[in-house]
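Co-fold these.
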Amino acid sequence: MANKIARVPAREQEPKVRAANFEEVCYGYNESEAVLEASRCLNCRNPRCVGACPVSVKIPGFIARVAAGDFAGAASVIAEDSSLPAVCGRVCPQETQCEGSCILGVKGEPVAIGKLERFVADWTRENGGAAPAKAEPNGHKVAIVGSGPAGLACASDLAKLGYEVTVFEALHRPGGVLEYGIPEFRLPKDKVVAAEIDQVKALGVKIETNVVVGRTVTIDSLLDDEGFEAVFVGSGAGLPKFMGIPGENLNGVFSANEFLTRNNLMKAYREDYMTPIHAGDKVVVVGGGNVAMDAARTALRLGADTTIVYRRTEKELPARLEEVHHAKEEGIDFAMLTNPVEVLGDEKGWVRAVRCIRMELGEPDESGRRSPVPVPGSEFEIEADTVIMSLGTSPNPLIARTTKGLETNRRGCIMADESGVTARRGIFAGGDAVTGAATVILAMGAGRKAASAIHEYISGKNREQ
Amino acid sequence: MLTPLVCKMEVEAARLAAAALPGQFLIVRATENGERIPLTISDYDKAAGTVTIVTQQIGASTKEICAMEEGDAFADVVGPLGVPSDFTEMSEEELAGRRYIFIAGGVGTAPVYPQVKWLHERGVAVDVIVGAKTADLVIFKKEMESVCDNLYICTDDGSEGFKGLVTAMLEKLVLEEGRQYTQAVAIGPMIMMKFAVLTAKKLELPIIVSLNTLMVDGTGMCGACRVTVAGKTRFACVEGPEFDGYEVDFDEAMRRQGMYRTHEQEADHKCKIGRGK
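Predicted complex below.
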């Protein structure tokens, strides 16, 4: 019988303290908190949470084991469907997925599925959970482009089926957006990301860093010369967008990608790294997504007064509520219904201010959201020495350009069906490279679907022979 | 060491060497905590699986690279990056009637070499102007002599060759000696490329330049390398590094190149604070 208590809160670092460090914001549950929270689960006969999870983790199954104190057992239930539980427990938008469909959420607070998943993953790592068993090799080679969530999920599933999997990563550390995009204070790099990638490697997956597919090798050379029977493209959406307004190339204007990559992948915040970063004293971040929150909270931690400028109202912010809440707690200003029209520079070509215009919400557009319209004559300036553009990203065109027969849509996304099948036989794709920028978990879901499509393709091909 | 501040090294990188073409660059990280430093590829040996790079010591990271000794390994080497020079895509017929003049400045002489070599091997006429402050700072002289038709050295102090700027040499060749070229290529400091373009414009000579902008990833992800070309923002790392010189906004490019200058100069004593603080 489920325990009718309130949702157990997860402990967090004090906002004032954490605003000046890069340590993780949320401490997560300890054992007794996790067992208590797990006892709230109704263990529904038709669990809606599982259907709402892009990788279909058997949620009531693992929670029942947590409630019984069998944390290792809970970990093996999760491992059947997810290769990155410590990551997902931290960065998934649970409120719109598993927790969003939890029955308890109708009248009260849903079970804290994300925090429980995180607890199980952290517990397993700290208590030396069993290394995953390597599957018997089946003699077939698959190449994966990109070591982000899509690639890692695809690689794990294929390795479990006995495939010899090599993942090619352009940067010098694996992880994709987990490494270069999401900051340390939300997703610790060594403790969580590297540790989960080590688990993937333990399945037998090889990761080659510093290989830019499309330059160092091509998809065709992998297929024709290196003996790979199929390729999965999970190269993400790494191309930053800019606004196209005057002054955008002034010194001190950065893409969120550059700012975050310098700080996350290149560890600019650490004294022992040589990476330079320019945070300045007054930072304006343009945009309202999770990446904008990450950039703003990073700038704040580097010592800058930080303002987020967004053209709609707070209600329309695409970022997760938790991120907006954390950003506010830490002291970030939110200038809503505000849109930059020009970046203004000083005599040396550095940013000195952003000229903005007030917006108001007009008629709903095709997406159903009320579209912002400028209020004539309402221009004003916000003083700033750094501007960070966080307007979204699109897929890098390199792979599509260097692979004949791979089709893209007008947004530059690779065309692939639900299971990752592209216009080219033997080439599969999924994650942000196909959908445009989305979430870690959707990319993982796409990676898993592609893995089963690849398995079907290679099995079928060999039956024909 | 080619000069007290410029070092040349061969790096083992089989995949990279196999794919490299003239005009491309690579990125290295000397140590685990180092920066990603873009460097031009100055030669490659596909059979041996090696690439040659030339580094000029400017700040802390390039100093770290130049301090490396034979047998040391970089933490990371990635490439080739960028679009190869446009002539690598041309057919023999297209190349046949062409006459190239390369204008190389300082350490920019190194990436000119594989381009000249590539064209020379295909029988294309190539002259090269190399500019340096003094005779001691001229690099790749022997290598260049063996692959070009005419080599013209220019030094600021007249210690070797022509005393004066590379642009004056270019004018002299075209206007006084009546040399005819179909294409110029300038690689060197931004300021040299800016003036090479102005001279080429005057001579109605098409000119390509190779931009050594700031970069982090080198794959189109960060936009640190953005330059204005023909009024549009382009990413030098994936759409360049070579662009039509007539169309490049050099003043903006030079300003952006200096964005982290204070950091770079002060990195020796670990300065991470913002500008003017």
